[in-house]
Amino acid sequence: MQFKKYKASPAYQQLIAYFWTITSTDNDIDNSSYRFVPDAYVDWVFHLESPWQCDFPDTDIQSKTGKFHVFGQIKKHINLYLPESDLNVFGVKFHPWVANQIWKVDMHYLTNGCLNLTDLDLPEMTILQEKICLANSISERIKLIEAYLLPYVNYNDDQSLKTIFKRLDVGIHSIKKLDAGVGLRRLQQRFKNEIGISPKLFLRTCRINEVIEKMKENTNQSLTQLALEFDYFDQTHFIKDFKHFTGLSPTMFLKSIHPDGDILNLRIN
Question: Of the chain's two ends, which shows fewer C-beta atoms within 10 Å, N or C?
Fold first, then answer.
């Protein structure tokens, strides 16, 4: 499996972290299972061939994802069961606070799950998604997405979570002090509605991804050093948190991850 990233045009980078693709390679094993680790972003996914299946946490029902869907926030790792036919996926990785502003959906309902945007009765969504699937290149798909998002390029709201979050005095794990005029209960409710999870879990998710990036840069760094650098109480708490989000110990995680890929390339069998 090959994972690639593509930059959004400069005007759209406040909305989109990056575009991405996943495609099959000659070395793939049929029916391989991969793992997606929470990264605090929201992904709009287009399956150009057969869709994968997702085993979401804390639910009794496995989600049989359709051709198009939006992933909400994931509280812990999920397993992806790849189709037997060719894998060809195009995705848009939104910044956490963007999806609620564009689609006006309560993101709490997408937490630990996914949604087909046609269920929201959004104008022209079916046509747009079909155009993206029928496009002949990645660059054409990117242009279609950016054209759809053009009305939001100049969006600027002093009361948006992005703006408020920047004004908060935050540690890497917990909110230490709230800016004047921002109540904790109000902030928690807004995070639930606009992002899908609590501020505390959001910060934990961001932190574990910073840890993963640091581990990929220096595979020989000790767990004790990582725990201290990222403000964990001790190494035991660090390993427990790491296992919660990834399902693996730090050592096993490094053995499983693709060295030139992304955390979506984490093979688990």
Answer: C
Q: Distance (Å, rounded) from C-alpha 153 to C-alpha 147?
A: 10
Let me know: does 92 contact 19? Beta carbons within 8 Å: yes
pTM over 0.70: yes
b/e code 15-36 from CB counts within 10 Å (16+ = b): bbbebbbbbbeeeeeeeebbbb
Token digits of residue 220:
């020989």
| Chain centre to alpha carbon of residue 187 | 21
Q: Which domains does the chain have, with CATH numbers?
A: 2-152 (2.60.120.10)
- Give the burial string for 141-161 (b: 16+ CB within 10 Å, else e): bbebbbebbeeeeeeeeeebb
